[in-house]
Amino acid sequence: xxxxxxxRLVRLEPRCLADNKSCVCELVIGLIGEDGxxxxxxxxxxxxxxxxxxxxxxxxxxxxSSKIVNQFAADQNWWSSLDSQxxxxxxxxxxxxxxxxxxxTLDTTVEPTPEPEPVTPEPVVEDVEEEVNDA
Length: 135
Prior knowledge:
Blueprint lengths: L5 E12 L2 E15 L5 E8 L7 E2 L5 H14 L2 H14 L44
Antiparallel strand pairs: 1-2, 2-3, 2-4
């Protein structure tokens, strides 16, 4: 079955070092997947540059940001995760349409339903013929 879900970047928030506000130490990345039928799913995570790599705010061009986001999403298996969330959402119960609840009289004297008594199984006794070995 073909997947017709679409995906959108909804968060790309750089977090910078406290002592160098131009140096990005992590990016918060968030995506939404939608199926076009009103079902959607959201996922986010934090990408960090590789050890020893320095990323500056002005390095976050459209091309560089796209590369980071797409690789991070692929590495985290986000496409599959979003698809699974949407699929699970479609299987959830839905509210009945045009249902109007009747007037309900509440009775605080109703006792709770008693718990059923546990059933203890009878032990199974098997007839075993004993072999007698003459020595």
